[in-house]
Fold this protein.
Amino acid sequence: MDENQISAVFTMHDLNLALRFADRYVLGKDGRVFKHGGKDIITPENIEQVYEVKVDVENINGYQVVIPSN
């Protein structure tokens, strides 16, 4: 798709699905942009700040995944 220079913008709350298919991310909090960028913004610290839940971010079979933690 890069050769056609096509972009799509969509909203989802399933971080693992977004990590599979998206190149860029925007994390929102309280109606504002909290962070934006590539996969480097998908960190346990940022997710806890936005969603108020503790997670681990792991690489499994070559895919970055978000897993709830205790």
